[in-house]
């Protein structure tokens, strides 16, 4: 039972497809989360700007280097106050849904955007969450028609979708096989941290374990501040972080999700090999515990 390790393509820079794929292959990655606008020269926001030949070139270049596109990253602001900007974002995401087959991928990933513009309203965070749900429901419906899954990533406190309860509500309201969850456990941990990591992970997997379509792998520390210990996130795995990756993998395996891509975040080419080695050791330990 081998893990499916990968990373964000743009963490290795912006290069033409063949060069970027070769650079990533040297890290040992077998898959990527690919943000077309960030990974390749030109900053093209719409897949159509690559043309059919350009998309085929991307898929061929990665396949030739033993790499699949596990997730297409199209991270949009689903709660922008400017309705024209929000509409453009939705159309851009829908264009990525249409292009997914050309890249051999069936998951398009997004976060939800900041609730800050809503906080001057009564119940502003809840309002932002509801606005996000409206937009995500539209995207999930579009994905259903193409056999694609929308992978939604929650971020504690900083985004409109920010809690386990939010995810539970979204799953219940959508009731769609086209809704998936990109689980970034570090992002979902609040600034104050968690007092019981096992309880936190148990609740995550009980709520959305069967919906997980990708794992984002990074780490965090709890550091002193004027308000007490606070989370310092976005650290490469294998440093001095406190995320329980054995616990994540043990639950992932128990949920029958051992083929879900595990994607490094915030990891430079210089650290990728060590990070993969660290995660492999955690995976091997989790396998033993799962038996």
List the helices and strands and how they pair.
Layout: E1 4-8, H1 17-25, E2 31-34, H2 36-39, H3 51-64, E3 68-73, H4 83-99, E4 107-110, H5 124-146, E5 149-153, H6 164-174, E6 179-183, H7 185-188, H8 197-208, E7 212-217, E8 219-225, E9 228-235, H9 245-254, E10 261-264, H10 269-290
Parallel strand pairs: 1-2, 1-10, 2-3, 3-4, 4-5, 5-6, 6-7, 7-10
Antiparallel strand pairs: 8-9
Protein name: Sugar phosphate isomerase/epimerase family protein
GO molecular function, one term: isomerase activity
Organism: Cellvibrio fontiphilus
Description:
- With 291 residues, the protein is α/β, with parallel strands linked by helices.
- The chain has helices at 17-25, 36-39, 51-64, 83-99, 124-146, 164-174, 185-188, 197-208, 245-254, 269-290, and strands at 4-8, 31-34, 68-73, 107-110, 149-153, 179-183, 212-217, 219-225, 228-235, 261-264.
- β3 (68-73), α4 and β4 (107-110) form a beta-alpha-beta unit.
- The chain is globular.
């Amino acid at each position: 039972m081998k893990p499916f390790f990968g990373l964000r393509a743009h963490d290795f820079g912006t290069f033409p497809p063949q060069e970027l794929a070769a650079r990533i292959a040297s890290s040992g990655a077998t898959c990527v989360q690919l943000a077309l606008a960030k990974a390749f020269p030109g900053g093209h926001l719409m897949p159509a700007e690559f043309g059919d030949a350009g998309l085929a070139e991307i898929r061929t270049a990665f396949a030739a280097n033993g790499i699949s596109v596990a997730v297409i990253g199209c991270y949009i602001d689903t709660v922008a106050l400017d309705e024209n900007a929000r509409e453009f974002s939705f159309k851009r995401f829908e264009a990525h849904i249409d292009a997914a087959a050309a890249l051999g991928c069936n998951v398009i990933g997004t976060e939800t955007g900041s609730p800050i513009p809503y906080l001057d309203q009564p119940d502003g965070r809840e309002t932002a969450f509801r606005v996000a749900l409206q937009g995500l429901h539209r995207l999930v419906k579009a994905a259903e028609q193409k056999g694609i899954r929308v992978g939604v990533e929650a971020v504690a406190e900083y985004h409109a979708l920010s809690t386990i309860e939010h995810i539970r509500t979204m799953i219940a309201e959508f009731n769609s096989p086209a809704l998936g969850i990109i689980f970034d456990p570090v992002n979902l941990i609040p600034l104050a941290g968690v007092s019981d990591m096992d309880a936190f992970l148990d609740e995550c997997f009980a709520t959305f374990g069967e919906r997980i379509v990708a794992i984002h792998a990074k780490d965090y520390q709890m550091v002193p501040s004027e308000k007490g210990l606070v989370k310092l996130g976005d650290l490469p795995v294998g440093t001095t972080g406190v995320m329980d990756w054995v616990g994540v993998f043990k639950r992932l395996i128990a949920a029958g999700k051992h083929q879900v891509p595990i994607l490094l975040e915030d990891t430079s080419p210089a650290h990728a090999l060590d990070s993969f080695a660290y995660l492999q050791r955690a995976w091997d330990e989790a396998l033993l515990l799962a038996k």
